[in-house]
Amino acid sequence: MSPEVFVDVFRDALFMVVLMVSAIIVPSLLVGLAVAVFQAATSINEQTLSFLPRLIVTITTIGLAGHWFVQQLMDFTIGMYMRIPQVIG
């Protein structure tokens, strides 16, 4: 396996990880920021208040985008199988 092929495979895998994680984390971060601004404006210092909305948004995001996640992972896996001759030879 040449170093260029290894770098391409590693880059594609890293991109897939970043894409999947950011699709789940970004909505949760935005909701957490909104709740934090609300808590700062109202002087409510309850730690569990920010947990539940983030949990609900994270579960909803996984539920709504689950099909897309699976499709992306299937495309990536098929692409990796198609690269086997290039990696070996």
UniProtKB/TrEMBL annotation:
GO cellular component, one term: bacterial-type flagellum basal body
Functional note: Role in flagellar biosynthesis.
Family affiliation: Belongs to the FliQ/MopD/SpaQ family.
Recorded topology in the membrane: Multi-pass membrane protein
Any one GO BP annotation for this protein: protein secretion
InterPro entries recorded: Bac_export_3, FliQ
A UniProt-annotated Pfam family: Bac_export_3
Record key words, sorted: Bacterial flagellum, Cell membrane, Cell projection, Cilium, Flagellum, Membrane, Transmembrane, Transmembrane helix
Cellular localization per UniProt: Cell membrane; Bacterial flagellum basal body
Transmembrane segments: 13-39, 51-70
Primary localisation category: membrane
The protein's name: Flagellar biosynthetic protein FliQ
